[in-house]
Amino acid sequence: MIKDFPGHDTHAPARHGETTGGFDKSPGWLDWYDGPSEPTFRLPAGAVDAHCHVFGPGEDFPFAPERKYTPCDASAAQLFALRDRLGFERNVIVQATCHGADNRALVDALRRSEGRARGVATVRRDVTGEELAELDAAGVRGVRFNFVKRLVDRVPTDSLEEIVAKIAPLGWHVVIYFEAEDLPALYDFFSAIPTDVVVDHMGRPDVTKDVDGPEFGLFLRFMRENPNVWTKVSCPERLSVTGPRALDGEQHAYTDVVPFARRVVEDFPDRVLWGTDWPHPNLKDHMPDDGLLVDYLPRIATTPELQQKLLVDNPQRLYWPEGA
Ligand SMILES: O=C(O)c1cc(C(=O)O)oc(=O)c1
């Protein structure tokens, strides 16, 4: 059973950068950017921020004992304020690893969204049908499998297969997060997943390498060979090496990532999604202005048709297939 926790608007709201509940932020933690600029790029009506998270608040939804980092709070109310500021209509909230397989903060945010958010949960192999039904009723439509070693301990493949068998009848999909260097070893396992599959952040390419080279070529081949695979062309702020950063009004941020994202959007226009990744866990050297991240979009989806698919039609097909 998912227990209802006391609503956090009964408490004083967490201030920007705070962590409540007696947790200390990881050393060097960067807080999300307060007061983002209003985007210059006008998002199409019905746009979905298809990758974002909530953290805690720690006081109401404690972070998981097995977590690899402790963030600042980033509440549902703060996420929805960002949604409105940037001009998005809806969100897809992805369970963050700092909450492990405890989906209470996610479920609470989904319930508060009044149908304007769907979720991607993390579950263990022993999850029951009753728990899955409850997650489904709250708006969860997928599970996340994480292979990034700095974020999680490795879960054995047979556990993941067992989870897939449980979620497939619900029509859910699998979100996978991995580093480009691990794709060769995981390629066959990923290709055998029978549900839709969504790859986080383009499989984290090394953007100092050639967009036409073998590493990114393998990722493009993975998408070409598996028509059930989608990807998020998100996180330029994570992948960029030379920037410039989305700060101080910069309108050409993360130029080194543009050719990679643009290639994917143009080759697979019906299987791409985009999200802010707010509140941007584990960034080390800067925190982007989310308004300027939205201004990055027309550089990777260069026509109104591509923008409509990326931001509206594709997320709607995957997360609100019943209609707007
Ligand atoms: O690269 C990351 O650090 C990261 C972490 C998480 C998470 O902790 O869930 O999610 C993301 O999308 C990206």
TrEMBL record:
Alphabetical GO biological process terms: 3,4-dihydroxybenzoate catabolic process
Catalytic activity, EC: 3.1.1.57
InterPro entries attached to this UniProt entry: Amidohydro-rel, Aro_Compnd_Degr_Hydrolases, GLI/LigI, Metal_Hydrolase
Annotated segments matching region Disordered: 1-23
Keyword Transcription regulation: no
Keyword annotations of the record: Aromatic hydrocarbons catabolism, Hydrolase
Domain Amidohydrolase-related: 48-319
A molecular-function term among this protein's GO annotations: 2-pyrone-4,6-dicarboxylate lactonase activity
Similarity remark: Belongs to the metallo-dependent hydrolases superfamily. PDC hydrolase family.
Protein name (Swiss-Prot/TrEMBL): 2-pyrone-4,6-dicarboxylate lactonase
Species whose genome carries this gene: Demequina mangrovi
Taxonomic path: Bacteria, Bacillati, Actinomycetota, Actinomycetes, Micrococcales
